[in-house]
Structure formats: C-alpha cells, structure tokens
Amino acid sequence: MTGRARPAEGASTARLDAARNGDERAFTALVEPYRGELTAHCYRMLGSLHDAEDALQESMLRAWRGIGRFEGRSSLRSWLYTIATNACLSAIERRKPRQHPIDYGPRTDPDAAVPGLPVAESAWIEPLPDELLGVADGPMAPEARYEAREAVELAFIAALQHLPPNQRAVLILREVLGYSARETAATLETSLAAVNSALQRARARLEDRLPDRSQQATLRILGDDGVRAVVGAYVDAWDREDIDGVVAMLTEEATFSMPPMPTWYGGSGGHPELRGFLRAGPLTGEWRWKHLPARANGQHALAFYCWHEPDRTHHPFALNVLSFEDRRISDVTCFINRSIDSDDPDDYVRFPNQPLDPRRTEAFFLRFGLPDRID
C-alpha cells in the first residue's frame, strides 16, 4: 500500500516470528502503533466511536487468531486495514446506519409545546476526539483526495452513512487512505470493475450531501484570529443571554440540532425560527450555563455545563460541535449527555433537569479531556 510508513512497518522478523508462535507481547508491540488510525478508520465506516472501538476489538481478535497465517505478501498495516474493514462491514450488516438529526426528519416547530421524545442513542452519529485521529494532518497517501481531518468532519461522517456499505468502504479506502483500485479490490475481494463502479457512484452521492467547502478549508481562510473572533462573539452573546446577538453570529440557514433528540431548528426556517427556539429553550433564563473550549472531528467545539442547585455546581450538559461558513456559524450539533429514560415529553422541555447519563458523559466529555463538573 502507498500510505505513510508507521513504526511497526520495520518491525523485526524476530518479533513477527514471536507473534506467530503465540507471543502476545510481541503481537501487541506489532499492532499498537496502528491502533489510533484504525480507530479513526472504523469510526468513518460506522459513525460512532463506541461502535468503532467494538469493531477494533473484534479486528484485533481476528488479527491475533490469524497472525500465524500472515505471510507478509502485503504490509502488516495493509493486512490490519483489511481485517478492520471487513469487521466493520460485518457490523454494518447487524445495525441500521447512524444519522444526523437533520437527515432523520423534518425540522421542528419552535412554537410546539413540547419537542417530542428522544430516540435511542444507536440512531445517531457520535463525535470523535481529535487526539484519536491517529494520523497527522494532510492526506494519508499522495493519492488520497481528502485530508485526514476533512475525513472526520461531521458533515463527511454523516454523508458516509448514507452510502451502501460497499460504496462506503471503497470510497474510504480510495479517497481517504489512498489505496489503489487494485489494492482496494484485493482488500474487499472483488473486481477492479466493481471497485471503479462503486467509487463513481459513491462520489456522486457524497458530493450531493457535502458543503462546497470543507471545515478545514474554512478554518484556514478564517485563521486562528478569525475563529477566535467568531467564537468569542458567539459565547459572549450567549453569556449575556442576548438572543439577537447569538442569532447574529449564525448564517441565514444555520441549523441547531440536539441528539439524542430528533429535534432540530433553523435551515429554511431561518433566524425567526432560531430565535423562537432560543427564547423557549436554552436562553429562557431558567438555567445557568458555563462553557469550555474543545475540539471534535477536526472542528471547534464548546462544552456546555448547566448549574445543578443540589450540588451547587455546573454539570455537563452537551458538547456543541460548531461548523463555520465565512465569518459566522452554520451548524451547531449539541451532543446531549442526559438520561432519556423518561416517557414523558414534558421532561424534555426541562432537559437540563434530567440526570446525567454515564455513558454519554464518558463519550462526550471525559473522552475529550473535559472535567465532570465546573465548581
């Protein structure tokens, strides 16, 4: 394969022989340098870090069982990617594709008395901490079409989930990892013609769903100072509960979504709809917010904490991943970490009052190096 070399590519024959003979420590030393990038690969395939880590665990088990049969005809890295890709394809057969709320259903009327009931967490794409990307900036190989960070942006991950599994795998292998058509065909045990056909169809479907400019390109245009100015103005207005100020930092068709709720606002509803949502929801003045900066999916994010009177502290509420267009925010995806056990829609009007969900708190806050409270 044409990708960048990793430390284990030059692993000694003695270590490989030891692994083949059942030495688990030698096997771990061989595969550990690839764990990060394989996690990112499984995440692209599955749209969920939780699912990706399950698939990676299955991949490592398959690799351990098969290392004795590894003959070195391909690189160890390429062999591991083959195993991980096929583990993901097996997982996809057992699960429905994950989605972004905007793809799940129509936007919500901000004047509705209640926003509706949340949907099981397995329905939604999930955020990825930047440190789990496992690769440097730039393409994985000269032939790759997408940069590593572009290929984990929320819009890209959401678009991938709409592709049939074989098209998804082909596009990731060819356009993200820089595999040749022949290498891709060997990995998926199919023909060159099938690979080329799948790639052509996948490109067309993906480009229909992706914005004209990636977030990485937008961030480069804005520069660090420009990003700080946009985010600073947005959070300043939020802190002052200035609804008009918040909306002024959003594009005309900005969207605001809140998985696990299917609820989302904005889009063609524009600023009036967003004002209605903010006025009836997070900026009613009923809750006190604090926030910390974070990074997710190669994008800027804000971790929001809500005051909890019994503990006299701020508890985690939602990881807000921001997308930019020019000098405004075009999309806010709020990954909420509260319980969805209640069957009463009224409870979700007062969502910050719901108890913390431990798995979501781990996935949306602790995995990002964020504190479990702000005192």
Please outline the major beta sheet.
6 strands, mixed
Give the spatial strand order of the biggest sheet. 2-1-6-5-4-3
The CATH topology of the largest domain: Butyryl-CoA Dehydrogenase, subunit A, domain 3
Query: What is Rg?
Result: 22 Å
Helical amount: 40-55%
The CATH superfamily label of the largest domain reads: PhyR, sigma-like (SL) domain
CATH class of the largest domain: Mainly Alpha
Approximate shape: globular
- Count of all domains: 2
The H/E string reads HHHHHHHHHHHHEEHEEEEH
Notable characteristics:
single chain; 375 residues; alpha+beta; Butyryl-CoA Dehydrogenase, subunit A, domain 3; Nuclear Transport Factor 2, Chain: A; 2 domains; six-stranded mixed beta sheet; 6 strands
